[in-house]
Structures are given as structure tokens and as C-alpha cells.
Amino acid sequence: MDEDSNDPEEYTVEAIRQKRKTKAGSYEYLIKWAGYPESDNTWEPLENLKCPELIQKFNEQAANERRRKKAEKSNTTATQQPSTSKRPRRDAPSLSGSIHGSEDTLNDDVNSLFVEDDDNEEGIADHGESARKKKKTSNNREALQTNDQVSLKGFERGLAIERILTASIGDDDKLYFFLKWQGRNDIEMVEADELEKKGSYELCRWYRERLYWEKSGSNNAQ
Predict the structure, then answer these.
(1) CATH placement of domain 157-210
(2) CATH class label, 13-72
(3) Domain segments of the chain: what residues?
(4) 177 touches 195 (CB < 8 A)
(5) What are the record's GO terms for cellular component (predicted)?
(6) What pLDDT digit, counting tens, does each position of 114-143 carry?
(7) Which of 176, 199, 201, 217 is the most exposed place for a label (fewest CB within 10 A)?
(8) What does the pLDDT look like over 52-92, one tens digit per residue?
(9) What is the pTM of this model?
(10) Phi then psi dihedrals of residue 168, to 5 deg
(11) What is the C-alpha separation between 217 and 222, in angstroms, rounded?
């Protein structure tokens, strides 16, 4: 009685369609099997394949395709880059061909170019000097405005009261309040009369927070 063979059936590789890298770092190839349709293509690891010539041919073709795409991309990028050539500032007289006129006339034409350049340079220098003067004037004006702002006292600066810190009697025996302005870190001493006129709401609130009322209890006669 013949025994059944346990050798696995071998298939013939017709072509390699694709290549991929697995999570483990190994490579697999999509195989087109001879005598089978494309729908039966399977991914096979390298150790299952016995077609080194087809594998080498596929890898070479894939490498050539990558180089071709890289070259096309490089050419496209170079074509899209803007030209860096500079246009001449003015049309210079051509020195080719026949020259007409005397030597003095030609010298005058050439010298006229340099005269125009000198005028342009002087104009640029004058413009730069004018800009520096304007900037200096602007800085001086800002400095004067800052000094005027600092010299103003009390409510003349148009600031709003953030809170009243405390009160004190000055050397002139007048009552002064120390104010913290909104958006500023400096503290200013303002006379009570001025605060009553221009900051009455904050002043009333300050007094109200410091008033303590005592409620007397009724005494029962014994």
C-alpha cells in the first residue's frame, strides 16, 4: 500500500507585484502565482520564496523608479524657482559695432552716466539725513510729552482710582489720601478737598468700610 506524501505542494512564481516592510522589520513580497488570477496573489516572506532572480530584478526596478521620481521632482523645483538676474538700472550705450562721433562726444556721453549716479547718491543721502532729523524730532516730542505727563498731579492725568490705601495729615495740617491708580504701580498723595470733588464715590466707600456701629442693648430695670 502506497503511503501519502507529506511534502507541501510548491507553486511557481510568475511575477512580483509589490514589496512592503512589516512591523517586525522584515520584508514581504506580493506574489503573482503562475496559472492563478491576480485575485489569488498573496504576501509572502522572503524565506518562503525560491526565486532570487525575480527578487533582484524587482528591487532594481524599484530603485530605478525611485531615482527617476527624485530627478523629476528636482527638475520641477529648479524650474519653479524665480530668476535672480537683475535688470540694468538704465540702458548703457552700446560699444559694439561702428562708433560715430568725436572722442570728446563719447567722453561726454560716458561722463553723463556718472553725473546722474552722483545726483542719485546725493538724493539718497539727503533723504537719509531728512529721515534721521524727523526721527530725532519725533523722539524729542515724545520725551516732552512724557515729561509733561509726569509733572501732572492728581486727576489731571485722566487716571481712574483703583483704591484708596490710607490717609495722613501733611506738614501743612491738611488731610491727604494715598491713591493707587488703575494700570499703574506708583502711589500718589492727593489732598482731601480734591478727592471729595473728583472721587467722592471711592471716598465714601473707603469711609464706609472703616465705620463700626455699636448697637446698645436695652437695660432691664430690676
Answers:
(1) 2.40.50.40
(2) mainly beta
(3) 13-72, 157-210
(4) yes
(5) heterochromatin; nucleus
(6) 444 444 555 555 556 666 666 666 666 665
(7) 217
(8) 999 999 999 999 999 999 999 888 877 776 655 555 555 54
(9) 0.34
(10) -160, 155
(11) 15
